[in-house]
Design goal:
Length: 354
């Protein structure tokens, strides 16, 4: 079906207000960039969810990363977006400017390579991301174990998506009618881990890719499920997502990690929504190895990132949006990450496609 036909069909199909959450930050950016909202009937509200891994990293976790960077003899290896996220008193970018050894990497493997080149120092990899990136961390930890690398460790800040969706689905205030589920994460976990959303909460679910057509057809599928009163998990991203996901990656995750509670910015501690290294890989756990404690910490005054991430407000409703908080001077991580909804709103505000 052509995209214009899909938009016309949507316009004919929607007969009541519907609230859909796009879970993934990549969806959020694509929706803005492609003007998807302008193709939707006014009855459909698209709200952004907690699908930006940098954005959901808690303030306490950022503070712990800064503390590590300040330790003599330590190299902190991190993805670029983490650098500018403000912690309580500093950021990794500020620490780097002050002479600490903070390095930007594009993969977990690169962090292990840095450890190999610096045998007299400890390299700590800040492992951030959802199920999409956690298998790469698991693979590198296993490789470090096989090599007997003793100067490498991981601050494991990975998050697991379905438990966060359960929290949002059970929030009566949010009243989500449908989830546009993340294509990337689903390539790893498949369809089954989402089924509780339709079976227990009666919420429509569509796994979608990232082109404008993918998103529009995903929305169309959500509307179809609601109109027929048959909520289900349906994948429209079959070119990348198998029903049972990536079984090799899942096996690797299970070999290296065990489920643990995790602190999400704005959502609080969610049971079994993170990963901890299991034996015999616990020797690579940075907090345990280096005597680091990760504690909860208050977010900056006035920052509403938590409400943005849980879909309670739109970014412009934050009093700091565009004034105290801009991409050049971010107050919260949602304005830092290229996939953060505040950054996306800021970039496209005033545009006719907003
Ligand atoms: Fe946080 Fe800035 Fe977004 Fe407000 S505008 S929610 S302070 S990132």
């Amino acid at each position: 079906m052509h995209i214009s036909n899909a938009a016309a069909l949507l316009a004919r199909s929607v007969d009541r207000p519907m609230r859909f959450m796009e879970v993934c930050g990549t969806h959020t950016v694509s929706i803005f960039r492609n003007g998807v909202r302008s193709l939707l009937p006014t009855e459909i509200s698209l709200i952004s969810g907690p699908g930006c891994p940098v954005c959901v990293t808690s303030q306490g976790e950022i503070n712990a990363a800064v503390e590590l960077a300040r330790r003599p003899g330590t190299i902190v290896a991190t993805y670029g977006d983490m650098l500018r996220v403000p912690g309580g008193s500093s950021s990794l970018a500020a620490e780097r400017a002050a002479g600490r050894d903070v390095r930007v990497v594009t993969s977990a493997a690169e962090a292990l390579h840095i450890a190999g080149e610096n045998p007299d120092r400890e390299t700590v990899f800040l492992a951030v991301g959802f199920e999409t990136t956690s298998p790469a961390t698991a693979a590198v930890v296993r490789e470090a174990a096989e090599k007997g690398t003793s100067n490498f460790s991981v601050l494991c800040l990975h998050k697991v998506v379905p438990p966060a969706l359960q929290l949002l689905a059970s929030d009566k205030e949010l009243q989500i009618d449908g989830f546009l589920l993340p294509g990337h994460v689903s390539t790893i976990i498949g369809e089954a881990p989402y089924r509780f959303l339709s079976e227990e909460y009666g919420i429509a679910c569509a796994i979608a890719g990232f082109e404008a057509e993918d998103i529009l057809f995903g929305v169309l599928e959500l509307v179809r499920q609601i109109r027929t009163d048959k909520p289900a998990v349906r994948s429209l991203y079959r070119r990348a997502v198998r029903p049972d996901g990536n079984t090799r990656a899942l096996k690797l995750l299970d070999q290296v990690f065990t489920a643990s509670d995790a602190s999400w910015r704005g959502l609080g501690v969610i049971p079994a929504s993170g990963y901890a290294l299991r034996e015999p890989f616990r020797i690579f756990d940075a907090p345990g190895k280096l005597g680091l404690t990760v504690t909860e910490a208050p977010v900056p005054d006035g920052c509403r990132c938590g409400d943005v991430l849980s879909g309670l407000i739109l970014p412009p409703e934050c009093p700091l949006f565009g004034t105290a908080c801009t991409p050049v001077n971010p107050v919260g991580p949602c304005m830092v990450s290229s996939e953060g909804s505040c950054a996306a709103h800021y970039k496209y505000q005033g545009s006719e496609i907003l």
